[in-house]
């Protein structure tokens, strides 16, 4: 009995020592081999990795570093699939340090897209579904080059026709150094629109439309400089200039539309963004967090109208149990202006500051806060399958998809110093809740179906295509 116990004790100690010795081993990255990047440059992929050729890596942290590298590469939105593994040199396995070759395989997306889009001059798609008007459609035709020259640059040129006319040109992520820490974005825009939201009516944007003239003519240009000292930390400085010509009819409808009675105005703006992004996935995060802060200041060329805003967001994602996840978002913003103007009082319901259950409505104000917790259950884990009719198109034939159900609560408040009787949702607590279904697929496609009810007794089923944030 004693002999058996001694043998068992020796085996336990040996196993412990073997584990300790293995955990203390270091892998030397002798090479990084990339497979499948027929278009993307190696440097674009390597700079997203948390390790480099020639690094010593503790074996116990190798799997985590590979996962981070895979997440970083997927978040570029250049690849449908990314696989990271290694090949060890068998002759070195008994040494304290041994060589590994890191192997990265990517499945590239399609990068050149002819553009023929139809957009709505509406608050969102759900407001149009409630009151369809086909004349509010605008067609956009042009081309978009993603991952231009294999350097993750984006070039877009569009011509717009219909209710809005003009053109859009942008050239983004122009890398200025070998490490990819410094980059530029350039954009030009011309827009003539027959439609304009000029105020608030019954808690919704009041739409003003003209069939005979353009209500606003805008010309704008911007230059953005981005400094990225770390893979997950970005600073962006944007300078923009806009010239706008407003039709006299707009002032008849709302004399306080933009804080003055001049029909023509030049606006100079400066925006600073800071983003710390530790999410596992930009498209549909399930783990990690994101912190975003923005400071904006603008003035007209006469310097008699100024506007400033500070806003921030915090997103948190956590796995609670197998297939069950929690995500929560907090958004806050505060602003100041030198003149009363409708366009400077947009709070909840504009751009990215939205509350589910209030898709048809807005709450104007100078200050706002929202809190949006959501519980997710993964009905169908991510699965990959081949579309046989597309087998000759490798960028499209391999599809991945996942399905989630969710329940959520949204809480918000917008403080308005000059609240209108037409916007009773300002200066009141806003509450909503509901359930939904999310389909998450390749090419950053997320289709969301949500049924929600708010504390004003409004409810409905809402549909949205959601794009990656930040």
Please, could you describe this protein's structure?
The chain is mainly beta and 470 residues long. The protein folds into two domains: 2-108, Roll (Ubiquitin-like (UB roll)); 112-466, Beta Barrel (Porin), CATH 2.40.160.50. Helix content is 11%, strand content 55%. It contains five helices and 22 strands. The protein has helices at residues 2-23, 42-46, 62-74, 125-130, 248-253; strands at residues 26-35, 56-58, 79-88, 97-108, 112-120, 137-148, 153-162, 164-175, 182-193, 195-201, 204-209, 216-230, 233-246, 264-277, 288-300, 306-321, 324-337, 367-386, 398-415, 430-441, 445-454, 459-466. The strands form three sheets. The chain has a 16-stranded antiparallel beta sheet with strand order 5-6-7-8-9-12-13-14-15-16-17-18-19-20-21-22. The chain has a four-stranded mixed beta sheet with strand order 2-1-4-3. The chain has a two-stranded antiparallel sheet with strand order 10-11. The longest helix is centred in the first third of the chain and has 22 residues, at 2-23. Mean pLDDT is 88; it is low at 7-23.
Distance between the termini: 65 Å
Which CATH architecture of the largest domain is right?
Beta Barrel
Strand count, sense and barrel status of the largest sheet are: 16 strands, antiparallel
Given the C-alpha coordinates, what overall shape results?
globular
Tell me the helix content: 10-25%
- In terms of structural class, how would the helical and strand content be classed? mainly beta
Oligomer: single chain
Low-confidence stretches: 7-23
Amount of beta strand: over 45%
Describe the strand arrangement of the main beta sheet, using strand numbers. 5-6-7-8-9-12-13-14-15-16-17-18-19-20-21-22
Please report the number of helical segments: 5
Number of domains: 2
- CATH-level-4 superfamily name of the largest domain: membrane protein fhac: a member of the omp85/tpsb transporter family
Q: Cα-atom Rg, whole angstroms? A: 27 Å
| Order of secondary-structure elements | HEHEHEEEHEEEEEEEEHEEEEEEEEE
Mean pLDDT value = 88
